[in-house]
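Worked problem 6 (solution included).
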Amino acid sequence: DEQKSFFNRLNKMGIKANSIADVLSLDKTDYLKRRLQTIVFKRKLANTIKHARQMIVHKNVFVDGRVINSPSYIVPIELENKINLKKKNKKINSEEIKK
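Solution. The predicted structure is:
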């Protein structure tokens, strides 16, 4: 039914809710903890919360192999461990080319 599908969507999102009372007791921080910006910072992939936002906007963060450039993206539980950073390309200086 509609209520069960609502609870399932919340649980997939990472918000524990099994009853209407659980839903009513939710706080905005429960939702904010699921944002990509917050998770990148909490997993220590960025030095500050602002640094996390900049990395996301500059397309340096991948979720399950896809570039996500929206800091407000809500990360589902199953994708939380699939957050990676873009690998940096090393610049080749001209002396290495001559060798």
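Discussion: DSSP finds six helices and three strands in the chain.
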